[in-house]
Amino acid sequence: MTEPEVDYTAVFRAFPGAVALVTPQLIYADVNAEFSRIRGGTREGLVGRFLPEDRRDDDSTAPLLLEILASLRRVMVTGERDTVALQRYAVEDPDQPGARQMRYLNLTNVPVFGPEGQVALLLQRVEDVTELIRAREVALTLQEAMLPAPCPVGRHPAAVRYRPAAEALHVAGDWYDLVDLPGDRMAVTVGDVVGHGLSAAGVMGQLRSALTAASLVADGPARALEVLRLYARTVDGAENATVATAFIDWQTGTITYSSAGHPPPALLRRSGAVEFLDQATDPPLGARPQHASRIQAAAAFREGAALALYTDGLIERRREDIDTGLARLSDSLARHRAEAPEALADAVLTDLLPPDGATDDTALVIVGL
């Protein structure tokens, strides 16, 4: 069968993404229509232009241009693709001539090899991710508005932390809550809604509010999660949410806990020993088609201990067993056991989250006992 002839020039011009071909001498060899639109010019005005001179008179694009040039040179030297970090770039507003609007761009430079294996051209792909960035900012704002502000609950010190994922342009459904209960008691909860964006944030808000109300009247965490499971059946997107909740009673020195498919809370004792509270773990909220009673368990504590609840973004890593992450958490808590909750929370995040940021959202609550 004869392969059909392909007009690659036509393919290049029709490509819906913004792409340009640059020579090793850093001259635009060709650009498609979408690249011209994002760049704010015409094909005729760009082709043949020396890329280092591709800047505005006000010099505001100089930092971006320097990063692009450095990336192109790396590709020429290594023969490997290179990505320029997310950039802000002001372009002319097509609806308001003379006005400029801020856009967010991802740039990737890819080598195109010649017949002798040399880098003959550089393919530059520009992706406008402005709308994704704006959607993420809206979702983050919504999520932050739904999460309780860090403040003392009763007379006991507590620290809360929320860290969004670094590499993805989304927000997840991680959440936490602390509820002051009658007597010298507190309910502490963390949860995780499957999915991302505004939908997950909305589900998260509904579940948090429902569990707060249930915790105030339930006789224990298992009953509170039973009520939450019934409510979750009426909320689209809540079926596979996971939750861990603990009722702390300082009069009896007891933590009563229950988990719906969530990583176990960690009890840090004064000696530095860490106990994972994993004796009352049931499936996620919507995993069972029929109603069934939830289980709960209890652990004793003494003054000077601390309790940590967290979402899986803190401990899970790609291509790594979860036990490795739990061991890493245990080690961090033990090494910093003398710290108060605020300092302990910061130390744990520093120890466990990668320097370039986690790939999943992370919520962490530490309560001083």
Describe this entry's structure for a reader.
The chain has 369 residues and is α+β, with helices and mostly antiparallel strands. The protein is built from 9 helices and 16 strands. The protein has helices at 8-14, 33-39, 43-46, 62-78, 130-146, 197-217, 221-232, 322-335, 341-352, and strands at residues 18-22, 28-31, 82-92, 100-113, 119-128, 158-163, 172-181, 185-196, 242-249, 254-260, 266-268, 274-276, 281-282, 297-300, 306-310, 362-368. Strands 7, 8, 9, 10, 13 and 14 form a 6-stranded mixed beta sheet that branches. A hairpin with a 4-residue loop joins strand 9 (242-249) and strand 10.
Alpha-carbon distance between the two ends: 75 Å
Biggest sheet, in brief? 6 strands, mixed
How many beta-strand runs?
16
Radius of gyration: 27 Å
Briefly note the structural class of the backbone.
alpha+beta
Number of helices: 9
List the secondary-structure elements in sequence, H or E. Answer: HEEHHHEEEHEEEHHEEEEEEEHHE
Low-pLDDT stretches: none
Strand content: 25-35%
The helical percent reads: 25-40%
Mass-distribution shape: elongated
Q: Averaging pLDDT over every residue, what do you get?
A: 83
